[in-house]
Design goal:
Strand 2 (94-96) and strand 3 form a beta hairpin. By secondary structure, this protein is α+β, with helices and mostly antiparallel strands. It has a six-stranded antiparallel β-sheet with strand order 2-3-4-1-5-6, sandwiched between helices. The chain has helices at residues 2-16, 21-24, 28-46, 54-68, 107-121, 126-132, 159-182, 240-249, 262-278, 283-297, 307-320, 328-347, 355-374, 382-392, 396-420, and strands spanning 75-83, 94-96, 101-105, 148-156, 210-215, 218-224. 32% of the residues are buried. The protein is 55% helix and 9% strand. The longest helix has 25 residues, at 396-420. The protein is globular and about 85 Å long.
Length: 421
Amino acid sequence: MRMKFQHVIDDFIESETSFNAHRQKLSKTTIILAFQDALIEVAEEIHSVDDPDLENKLEEMKQEVLRNTLGRDLETYTVVFPLNLKENSRIPGVFSMPDANFERISEREWEQDYEQPARENDETSLSAFLEESPNDLYESDGMGGVFTFWRMDYDARDHRYALSQVPEIVRLLLSELNFVIWQWTSGIPRPASNERPPNARWSELKEPFIYLIFSQDEYLDYLPYDYELRRGSEGNRRNMDERIERFEQLPGFSVRREELTDVEETIANALVSYQDGITESSIHQSFFAFWRGLEILTQVERGQGKDVVVERALFTLENVTEREFVRRRLKRALDEIEDKRNSLVHEGPHTGISHSHRDTSKLLLDAMLELYFSYYDEDFSNDDFRQLLKYGTMTSQEREAGRDDCERTIEIINRVQQMID
């Protein structure tokens, strides 16, 4: 009954308002709950009235709900979270994104200003979640704390919308950070000792396992992400200073897709796939995530075979690198990777996906992202990239024929122009 009631309200919002969550920075849940509360009040008010003017009452209720939701002013919410990015002098203290900036706060500030007040004022399951989580926020691994703590201010009309958007902003940022840290590595890192099994992920740098949200100094709610254990990840790679400098030069992308060009949306979607692949422990799922990114960036058109994905990605790899990146053990994987993707789709997880297949798909995605970032300032459209990749993978005979066709077309256009003039 309650679900049916919610569907009725949801249909009403769709038909009677111009609601758009991203444009109005408001969650539909907040409107639905406001309507539910208002309808209960109306029902209680008219319960003892013999001849209630129900139509006018409902219209007044509707207008009041819309004023208190769609008509409310934007409010600045503060979202804080722990990130398993260990303290490192080379890591910036502030990250900037198009939708919001977030800054690092001290462990003491996190504990005293945010975590403790949240625990004291939460009436749901926050304390239970933190206690059941395998993550110890104050754990030390001998080289510093596993977590650093971050704060972001975000403007919205309700805290639910803010909590839905901030994780997406963080995810995009981490995808770029992981890209510059791990670009051109063709095998996952291995532990220096036998104290633990080989690392199943390329990167441990994952989205925070929890977010807390505040209005001014008032705790409002928390968003649990998952129960997975986070290991400390400081990005201790060679040339880390250069990698962070590269990171700061990369364009940031809004999570509000309507604000992106077609190319920006394409890159942002591929980066999300990259983040999924580089932090996924399952070889199959990691491979599939990298492949999704390849399909997005290679601009393969409907009806074209999956071999086109590999051809265009391999062409890109060979042209954006100055030295041999495809190790001997990966060359065979290049020949098999297309068939492996098809088998994984049709046959399921029993398909034999090896480390080499996963490594190769990641390496190809590295190359594709490098291509897009290299031409980003050239204002290429998706069609421009499609034509570039299409031309690049043609045979010499096909290119010659294409040039002849272009020259003939230009000649015809010039003649028509002369006739018009």
